[in-house]
Amino acid sequence: MKKTFLILCAATSLSSLAQEHFAGISTSSRGGILNASMNPAELSNLKSKYEVGVLSASFALSNNQLTFDEIINSDNFEEELFKDNKNIDLRFDAEVYGPSFAMKIEKWAFSFTTKAYAKVNADDINSTFGNAVTNNQFNALNASAFIENGSNQRLNGTTWGEIGFGIAREIYQDEKHKFSAGANLKLLFPGSYANLGVDKFRGTLVQTVNGVGLTDASAGVNIAYSGKLADDFTETSNYTKSLFGGLNGFAVDLGVNYQLKDQTEGYRINAGVSFKNMGSMTFKSGNNSSTNYELKIPNGAVLDLEEFNNVESLEDIEAILLNTPYLIGTKNNKDIKVNLPSTFVAYADVKVISDFFVTVYTQQKLKEDADNDQITTQNVFSVTPRYSTNNFEVYAPLASNEISGFTAGLGFRYGGFFIGSSSAFTGLLGDGEQADVYLGFRFGIQ
Questions:
Q1: Does pLDDT of 197 surpass 90?
Q2: Using an 8 Å Cβ cutoff, are 403 and 376 in contact?
Q3: Could you give the angle at the alpha carbon of 403 between the alpha carbons of 401 and 404, nearest 5°?
Q4: Under a CB-based contact definition with an 8 Å cutoff, are residues 131 and 214 in contact?
Q5: Higher pLDDT, 359 or 315
Q6: Which pLDDT does position 245 carry in this prediction?
Q7: Which residues pair with 96 in a beta bridge?
Q8: How far apart (Å, rounded) are the C-alpha atoms in residues 25 and 420?
Q9: Long-range contacts of 318-325 (CB under 8 A, 24+ apart)
C-alpha cells in the first residue's frame, strides 16, 4: 500500500502538471471546439466555416496540504504530506484531444472530437492513518492512537477514451440578440480502473516490533480493479497504455447559449449554461474484480501494516487481507459500472471596452465523490480578464478551487496555437497548492 500512496504523492512534485481544464482559452471570444467542450451550444459561434483541432492537452494537479515551495524544499515529502491533523486530498487529471473537426452550415453546426482521459485521486485520506501506512509511524504522546473517520477514504485510478458527436442550432437571432442550443453525444471506451475505498473507518494504531499495527478496527472496504491497473496501480505506463478500451458506455452534454451583440463587431456578452458528462461506462476485462468487504480486527489482535510496504497493486492488498481472518466478504467477479464526473457549468464573457473582456465562470459537481463507483471532480469558480484580438490573446485566470484554494495563472494565444496555466503565478511564487499546464493547436478554414 505504501507504493499506492507514493504514486499519488510523487505526482505533486511535478512542476509541469487545475481541475478547470483549458482555463481561459475555453471561454475565448475566438470560439471553436474547445468552447464547445465547455458548452455544446458554443458550436453555433464558430467564426470560420470549418475548424480542425490538431492536438490539445491539459495536465492538472492539485492537493490541499502542501504548497509548491514546500514540495520543492521538503527533505521528506511523505512525512510533510501527513504532518497536520487533516484529511488529505490529491487529484491528478490529464485530458488530451486527438484529431477533431467542426463545421457550420447556415443555422446548424456539427463537430467530431476524440479525447483520452487519465485520473488518479486520493480522497479524504486521514493523515494519521496515511502516515502509518506510508511511513510506518504515527505521531502520538502514547504508544497508541485512536482514529475514527466517517467519510470514505478512496484511492482511485481511471483511464478511458471518448468519441464525441456534437450538434448545435441557432434558435433565434436579430440585430441585438442570438440564442442557441446544443448537445454532444459521447461514446465511451473504458480502459482501466482501480478503486480502494475504506468507509467509516475506526481503529487503534499501536507500536509493534516491526513498526505500526492496527487493532480493534472496523471499516467497509471496496476493492475493485479492471485492465492493466489490476497488475500495477503505481506504474505510469499502465495508464498511458490503456487509455482506449472497447465501446461500453454513453454520456451526453447539453447546453444553451446567449449573445448580446456588439453594434460594431462580435458580442458584448456571451453567456451560457450546460450540463456535462451525464452518463456512465462499464469496465469489462478478463481480470475484473469488484468486492465489498467488512474489515473487523478484534481488540487484542493486531494487523501488521509493515506487510503492505512493498505491494504494487490492489490485488496484492486484497490477497494480504484475505490471508488474515479480518476481512469478511465473498469474492465477486463482475462488470464494473462507474459514473462520469457530471457537472453544471455557467459562465458569462463580457466585453468591457474594445478588445478587453472579463469572464466569470463556475463549475459545480452534481454528485459527491465519496461513492466507490463515482469518478471525482471538484468545484471551481474563476474570473478571467483577457485582452483579445483576431490573432493574439493574453489572459490571466484567477480561481478558487475546492481542493487547492486560490490560484492565479497566465495564458497566450497566437493564431491557432495556445499555451497556458491556471496556476502559473501562484506556482512560481511557491505558495500555491496546484500546478497545471495546457497547450494545443487548431486552425480555421473559411
A1: yes
A2: no
A3: 70
A4: no
A5: 359
A6: 75
A7: 57, 116
A8: 8
A9: 318/223, 318/289, 318/291, 321/221, 321/293, 321/295
**Which pTM value belongs to this model?**
0.88
Which residues, in sequence order, are bridge partners of residue 173? 178
For residue 10, the model assigns a pLDDT of 38
Helices (H), 179-274: 237-240
Q: How many CB atoms lie within 10 A of CB 106?
A: 7
Spatial contact of 268 and 199, defined as CB atoms under 8 Å apart:
no
Task: Say how far apart CA 152 and CA 220 lie, in whole Å.
Answer: 9
Using CB atoms within 10 Å of the CB of residue 265, give its burial: 0 to 12 exposed, 13 to 18 middle, 19+ buried: exposed
Does residue 4 carry a pLDDT above 50?
no
Number of residues in the chain: 446
Are the C-beta atoms of 384 and 398 separated by less than 8 Å?
A: yes
Please give the sequence-ordered ranges of beta strands (E in DSSP) within 64-143, or none if there are none: 87-97, 100-105, 108-126
Could you give the CA distance from residue 399 to residue 99 in angstroms, rounded to a whole number?
29
All three cell numbers of 96, joined, read 488530451
CA distance 55 to 71: 31
Helix, strand, coil % over all residues of the chain, rounded to 5: 15, 55, 30
Instruction: Provide the β-strand partners of residue 348.
Output: 271, 360
Mean pLDDT computed over 99-108: 95
Helices 2-11 and 127-135 cross at an angle (nearest 10°) of 110
Q: Give the integer Cα–Cα distance in Å for 350 and 260.
A: 9
